[in-house]
Amino acid sequence: MLRKMCLLSQLTCMLLVWATVAVPAQCATVTLEESVTLALEHYPAVRAAEAMTQVSAAGVDLSRTSYLPRAELLWQMNRATRNNILGTLMPQPVVSGISGPVGVDGTPSVWNSATGLLVAWEPFDFGLRAANVESAESALRRASASANLTRLQVATAAADAFLTVVAAELTRRAAEAAVVRARIFHEVVVARVNAGLRPGVDAQRARAELAVAETQRIAVETNDRIARIVLAQYTGLEADTVNVNPGPLVSIQESPPAGSGPAMGLGTLVSPAAPYAVEAHPQALEQDAAVHEARAQLRGLERTYSPRFNILFSTFARGTGWLSNDEVQSGLGALRPDVSNWAIGLNVTFPLLDWPAVQARKSAGRSRQVAETARYSKVVEDLEAQMGRAQAFLDGAQRTAANTPIQLEAARATEQQATARYQSGLSSIVEVADAQRLLTQAEIDDAIAKLNIWRGLLLQASVQGDIEPFLRRVRP
User: What span, in angstroms and rounded, lies between the C-alpha atoms of 298 and 137?
Assistant: First the structure.
C-alpha cells in the first residue's frame, strides 16, 4: 500500500511538472496606444522624474517656512562643581560656562538643571526670502517640465519601438514569401534539369538563390526578435509573448478611399504642420525654468550683504544644588528649575567682512544666468531644426509611399514574366533570380514606406511636444 502511494505521488508530481512546462505563456496583443500607456506606467525613468518633482515641491514648502518664527526648547541636567574664577573666556566649544561668585575651594559636585524657550522672528529681510522662494518655485517648474519631457521621450520611444516591430514583422513576411518563391522555383528548376531541359548549373544557381533567401529570412527574424525585446523593455511585457495590433498602420492607400473606413489616403493622413510655439515644448519649458531659477538665485545673492534683524523672546528657569547661604542641597531637588527669567529684544547682525565672498558668488551667479540663457537659445534652435528635419522626413516618406506601389506592381509583373520566359526556354535563370530579388525588395520597400509616414508623423508630434493627436490617428 505504501509503495502504491509513493508511485501515485511521483506520478502526480510528474504531471504537475509536465503541465507547467507544456502550457505556453499567454500571448499579449497590444496596440500602439496601449504600448505607450504601458511604457508610461512601467518605465523606471518616468517614476524617477515624478519623484524628483515631489522633491522639488517639498523644497518649495521648505523655503516658505523661512517666513515663520523659529522656536527652540531646552531642558538640561548635569552634575558639576561650582569652581569659578574671574576673567574673560573667548567663545569656544570646550570649556563650559559657570555662573555665580568666585569659588575655588574644591567643593564637591551638585546637581544642576535648566529649561527654557527661545523664539526668534525675522520681520523683514530686504527680499532675501522672497528670492529664495522664487528660486525654489523655478526649480519645481523645471522638475515638472523635466518630468513632462521624460514622459514625452518615453512615449515617443515606445511608439517608435512599436513601429519598428510592425516594420520588422512586415519585412519578415516579405522574406518568408521570398523563401517560398525561391523554394518553388528551385523545385521547378530541379525538375527541368532532371528532365534534361536545362543544364545542371541552373539547379545549383537555384539552390544558391534559395540559400540567399533563407539567409535573408534569418537576418530579418533576428531583427524582429531584437525589435520585440526593445518594445518589451518599455512596456514590461515578455518579448516572446508580445504581439502587436498594427491597426491602421498598414492600411494607407495612395489616395483617399471613396467611403469611410479604417484605411486612410496619403492626402488625408499627411497635412501641413500646424504652427506651434517652440517655447511650449517641455524641453524649452525646462530650460526656461532653469533661466528663472538662476535669475532668482542671483537676486538672493544680491541681498545677502545686508543687515539681518531678529526679534527675540526668551524665557528660562534654572535650578542648582548650591543654596544662597553656600550650603549644599541634598537629594534631587535641584533637578527642578525654580528660578525663572524672561527677556525680549532685537538682534541685528551684519556680515561686515563677507563682501569679497558675496561678490565672488554674485559673479558666479551672473555667469550661470548667462549660460542658462544661452542654453535656452540653443534648445529653441535645436527644436526648430528638429521640426524642419521631421517635416523633411515626412515629405520624403509621403513621396516614397506614393511611388512604391508602382515599383511593387512592376516588380510583380517582371517576376511573372521572367518565370514564364524561363519555363518557355526564352531566358536564363539569372533573369528570374534578379526578378525575384527585385520583387522581394519592392515588397519590403512598400511596407516600410507606409510605416515611414507614420514615423514622420510621430517625429512631428514629438517635436511639437504632444503625441496625443498622433495616438488618436492610430486607434484601431
Answer: 15
Residue 355, phi then psi, degrees to nearest 5: -60, -50
Provide the pairing of β-strand 264-265 with 70-80: unpaired
Cβ-contact 293, 139 below 8 angstroms: yes
DSSP 8-state secondary structure symbol assigned to residue 273? P
Along the 476 residues of the chain, how does pLDDT read in single tens digits?
A: 334 334 334 434 443 333 333 334 456 788 889 999 999 999 999 999 999 999 999 999 999 999 999 999 999 998 888 787 878 888 888 888 887 777 666 667 888 899 999 999 999 888 899 999 999 999 999 999 999 999 999 999 999 999 999 999 999 999 999 899 889 888 888 888 888 878 888 888 888 988 999 999 999 999 999 999 999 999 888 888 888 888 888 765 443 333 334 445 555 455 555 556 788 899 999 999 999 999 999 999 988 889 999 999 999 998 888 777 777 777 777 788 888 999 999 999 999 898 999 999 999 999 999 999 999 999 999 999 999 999 999 999 999 989 989 999 999 999 889 888 888 877 788 888 888 889 988 988 888 888 899 999 999 999 999 999 999 888 87
Beta bridge mates, 103: 84
Please check whether residue 171 is in contact with residue 220, taking contact to mean a CB–CB distance below 8 angstroms: yes
**CA distance linking residue 91 with residue 160, whole number of Å:** 66
Grid coordinates given for 171: 519585412
User: What pairing do the DSSP bridges indicate for beta strands 308-320 and 110-121?
Assistant: antiparallel
Those residues with Cβ within 8 angstroms of residue 42's Cβ, 6 or more apart along the chain or in another chain: 234, 235, 236
Output phi, psi for 111, to 5 deg: -80, 145
> Among residues 464, 310, 330, 335, which one has the least CA distance to residue 387?
464
The C-alpha atoms of residue 198 and residue 204 are separated, in whole angstroms, by 11
Measured CA to CA in angstroms, residue 69 lies from 15, 119, 233, 350 at distances of 73, 7, 51, 20
| Spatial separation of the C-alpha atoms in residues 28 and 339, rounded to whole Å | 78
DSSP string, 314-337: EEEEEEESB-TTSPBPPTTGGGS-
Question: Rounded to whole angstroms, how far apart are CA atoms 281 and 149?
Answer: 8
SS3 letters for 281-308? Answer: CHHHHHHHHHHHHHHHHHHHHHCCCCCE
Please name the amino acid found at residue 101.
P
C-alpha 436/C-alpha 453 separation (Å) is 26
Residue 99 burial (10 A CB sphere; 0-12, 13-18, 19+): exposed
Integer CA distances (angstroms), 49 to 30, 144, 161, in order: 26, 8, 21
